[in-house]
Design brief:
The chain has helices at about 5-20, 75-85, 100-105, 115-120, 135-140, 140-150, 180-205, 210, 215-225; strands spanning about 25-35, 40, 55-60, 65, 90-95, 130, 165, 170-175. The chain is globular and about 55 Å long. α2 (about 75-85) packs parallel to α6. The chain has about 240 residues and is α+β, with helices and mostly antiparallel strands. The chain contains nine helices and eight strands. The longest helix is centred in the C-terminal third of the chain and has 28 residues, at about 180-205.
Length: about 240
């Protein structure tokens, strides 16, 4: 089942260590098939060197295994809930423990937009979700992680902000497919590193952080030239 999608999700998962976004087995990628409502995800705890397209697991949007001999990623309920709630907007999800993004999550801070590199991809800050309560963690932890993300995006557009941080945990990113979700995961990690260095430098020279933030008109210009109705960045037909 879903042989072509398995290949795509395999390639997306293999890109994570290649891009320096995961070490050991600290990450996963999935992609939704909109026709069947099923998604393919990395199996739990399997080393990337041992991963094959055939070892990936097919699940439905309730997180139940439909096909596969291995246990799916422990984060499967999070992916499943996001697909259930946002499946008309997103088609791929990535979760990593990339270094700089995790640092912001552990600090419980959203990543401010300090410049145009960030603004090209996120319309505003990269938001940090609230921490899960003890009951949420002791209950359906991974499912509740998805619910906290959806709750935190009330009034936000997950297409314009294609990822977030979960407090004390790490980054989740998404996109139209798994490949784009990987791309956004790498952008988030680079934005996290740039913001961290910006704040360090501001502290060193005594510059208030509010003065370093990109003005809204600059954010608007850079985001809209790539993603707005009259976008002009890139070539015709390029997505």
């Amino acid at each position: 089942m879903l042989k072509e999608l398995r290949e795509k999700v395999y390639e997306a998962n293999m890109a994570l260590p290649r891009l320096g976004l995961v070490v050991f087995t600290w990450g996963n990628a999935s992609e939704l098939d909109p026709e069947t409502g099923l998604f393919v995800i990395k199996p739990s705890g399997v080393d990337y060197d041992a991963l094959t397209p055939e070892s990936l697991v097919v699940c439905d949007v309730d997180g139940k295994v439909v096909e596969g001999e291995l246990n799916p990623s422990s984060d499967t309920p999070t992916h499943a809930y996001l697909y259930k709630m946002w499946g008309d907007k997103i088609g791929g999800i990535v979760h990593t423990h990339s270094n700089c993004a995790v640092a912001w999550a552990q600090a419980g801070r959203s990543i401010p937009c300090y410049g145009t590199t960030h603004a090209d991809y996120w319309y505003g800050e990269i938001p940090c979700m609230r921490g899960l309560t003890e009951d949420e963690i002791k209950g359906a932890y991974e499912l509740n992680t998805g619910k906290v993300i959806v709750e935190g995006f009330e009034g936000k557009d997950p297409v314009a902000q294609p990822g977030c941080l979960v407090r004390n945990h790490g980054p989740f990113s998404w996109g139209k497919n798994a490949d784009k979700a990987v791309y956004n995961a790498k952008v988030m990690e680079e934005a996290a590193l740039m913001a961290l260095r910006t704040e360090d430098l501001c502290a060193h020279v005594g510059k208030p952080l509010e003065e370093a933030r990109a003005p809204q008109y600059l954010v608007d210009q850079h985001y809209m030239r790539k993603h707005g109705p009259n976008a002009y960045y890139g070539q015709p037909g390029q997505k």
